[in-house]
Design a protein that fits this description.
The structure is a homodimer.
Chain A lengths: L6 H19 L4 E2 L1 H8 L3 H9 L11 E2 H12 L5 E6 L3 H9 L7 E8 L8 E2 L2 E5 L3 H8 L3 E4 L6 H10 L4 E4 L12 E3 L2 H11 L2
Helix pairs in contact in A: 1-4, 2-3
């Protein structure tokens, strides 16, 4: 798959996927780019353009077959392959993710959580165990997770990020509110405070 | 304040604010747009352009006074005014936010949480009480919160969003993973699964 698609297009793909998934669950069999556009608050031509980056999957006068489009999007996103993840830092946000978040729905199998707090070490959330942070290196060497989820305090963010990348992790889902930059390692930042400040601006 | 600034600029303001805050905490007194750009992975001219939308605050040859820029950004974002918020749905994510999230740092005072589960009603997190969902309407009428934070299951997202807007809320911070649209009501979506799927694409 060519990787020269613009970031803006890539950022829209999960949204398409989510909506197409909802349509499939609702028993919808096919949808026109116009109806899909209405649902998403986009234009039909933008949707066609976006999907054409990957070869298009619609048919003139028919629209998109929902199940087919869902599978194609899953393949493009790579979420049909079940990559693996570890979560580092089982505090409140880490716990909330372990208990509630549908990792498999986003293409990942969560292998383990790590923390140094004896109160959580050994506990299990949704069948996933919290291990001692000191076992992390050995675990990573053995299990080679694709990504690490960082739900640790911000003052250790940079150090732990370097550690996990040195251990072979190829991507980071970053909840630390620190803008991490590591060469050749894709990082997705979840900056909750940025989101709330943007809302603050907009409700003024 | 004119509200015709592009969304892209507005989305960058919280990042500027965060970095400037860090600089201030680190004891930095002034910074050039070039150094700020390096820290942020942007260009100096982009930063100058962005800040010029609001009148600029730098001085040729001097750069930016850190404390001054921080205060200006806080004012632009409106986080110096302490708006008010209620959180609806005190499950794991709701609890994680109540326990950990620095609302005041993003311009909001959290007034209360609401849930219908007797196990959490009456509990307090960081001094904020969880009230019975049935008291919500009366509470909203009396306290007039500026925004509602929706950390409820997705199948009730649309109904509750309508309820809170009918009760006078002027903005929504949406964690439900449903793309809500309500006319004239700014909504900030936190789509964690979109973020993880984007990472999934990028680590392929």
């Amino acid at each position: 798959m060519e990787k020269t698609i613009s970031t803006a297009v890539i950022k829209r793909l999960p949204r398409y996927y989510r909506h197409i998934q909802d349509l499939e669950k609702a028993g919808v069999f096919r949808i026109s780019s116009k109806d899909l556009a209405n649902k998403l608050g986009l234009t039909a031509s933008q949707i066609r353009q976006d999907l054409n980056c990957f070869g298009g999957f619609g048919q003139q006068g028919y629209g998109y077959n929902v199940t087919n489009l869902k599978e194609q999007l899953a393949e493009i996103l790579g979420i049909d392959k079940s990559k693996t993840a570890v979560l580092i830092g089982v505090g409140n946000i880490g716990k909330a993710l372990m208990k509630n978040f549908d990792f498999e729905g986003s293409g990942f199998k969560l292998l383990a959580g790590f923390d140094t707090n004896p109160d959580v070490i050994g506990r299990e959330f949704e069948g996933v165990r919290v291990l001692d942070g000191h076992e992390m290196k050995a675990f990573m060497q053995k299990n080679k997770p694709d990504i690490a989820i960082l739900t640790i305090p911000r003052h250790i963010a940079a150090v732990v990020a370097k550690d996990v990348v040195d251990s072979g992790v190829r991507g980071i889902w970053n909840f630390t509110n620190v803008d991490l930059h590591i060469e050749n390692v894709p990082i997705e930042h979840v900056h909750l405070s940025d989101s709330l400040m943007t809302l603050c601006y907009n409700v003024e």
